[in-house]
Amino acid sequence: MKKIKLLQQVAQEGVVAVLRGESPDEVIEMANQCIAGGIKVIEITMTVPFALKAIEKLAMSYSSDTKDPSKFAIIGVGTALDPETARAAILSGAEFVVGPSLNPATVTLCNRYRVPVMPGCMTIKEIQEALELGVDIVKLFPGNLYSPAMIKAIKGPVPQANIMPTGGVSLDNLGDWIKAGAVAVGIGSDLTSEAVKSGNYDLIASRAGQYIEAYRSAKNAG
């Protein structure tokens, strides 16, 4: 039942912060700022050096089960290329797994342990294969190669697919993606680039708040 609850929480929160950095400490600070700003679903990519350390520390600080709002967050792993990486991240506390592509063995591993898995797909064929493997949320990636109209095109033949665009989602088009039927959106460098350049990581919390406001406005409008 926990998997179902996590999927519902991800869909309810609607915005996933995709975090990359130069060290575990940097992405932990990014995550803390995102959570403070209102983004409660955090994806730590495996391209971060010693990413598992960051996932472990964040998973010890936050939980999807807590009743304390200040401690609520869902910590997951991104750029999981294979089942070995996914399992290591799960053992470190990751509650969901995201990959840039569809790797059947990774999906099987995550299904075995009842952990939500969100593989990257670009075509109807890949999306169909993901659904047949038991994937609940498909990551449309790279999202910047498409417009929000792509979701309508996908949902023509496969209306049952839950689509999460990642890459190229911005404050300007987030509303269009949600109105088009996206179950959630993934936000990457637009959240953190200005903070990294300036060294002022408080800017991430402010940016996160803008994304949450945009998401809620789009949902309310729908």
Quick synopsis:
The chain is α/β, with parallel strands linked by helices and 222 residues long.
List keywords for this structure.
222 residues; alpha/beta; TIM Barrel; four-stranded parallel β-sheet; 10 helices; 49% helix; globular; Aldlse_KDPG_KHG; lyase; (R,S)-4-hydroxy-2-oxoglutarate aldolase activity
Description:
This protein has 222 residues and is of the alpha/beta class. It has a single domain (2-221), classed as Aldolase class I (TIM Barrel). 49% of the residues lie in helices and 14% in strands. The chain contains ten helices and eight strands. The chain has helices spanning 2-13, 24-37, 51-61, 83-91, 104-112, 124-133, 149-155, 174-180, 189-198, 202-221; strands at 15-19, 41-45, 74-78, 97-99, 117-121, 138-140, 163-165, 185-187. Strands 3-2-1-8 form a four-stranded parallel β-sheet, sandwiched between helices. α3 (51-61) links the parallel β2 and β3. α2 (24-37) runs parallel beside α3 (51-61), α2 crosses α10 and α4 (83-91) runs parallel beside α5 (104-112). The relative contact order is 0.15. The mean pLDDT is 97.
Secondary-structure-derived class: alpha/beta
* Secondary structure: helix percent: 40-55%
Q: How would you name the CATH homologous superfamily?
A: Aldolase class I
Average pLDDT taken over every residue: 97
| Helix count from the secondary structure assignment | 10
Largest pleated sheet = 4 strands, parallel
At the fold tier of CATH, the topology name is TIM Barrel
The structural domain count equals: 1
What is the N-to-C succession of helices and strands?
A: HEHEHEHEHEHEHEHEHH
Can you tell me the CATH architecture? Answer: Alpha-Beta Barrel
Question: Could you tell me the strand content as a percent range?
Answer: 5-15%
How many strands in all? 8
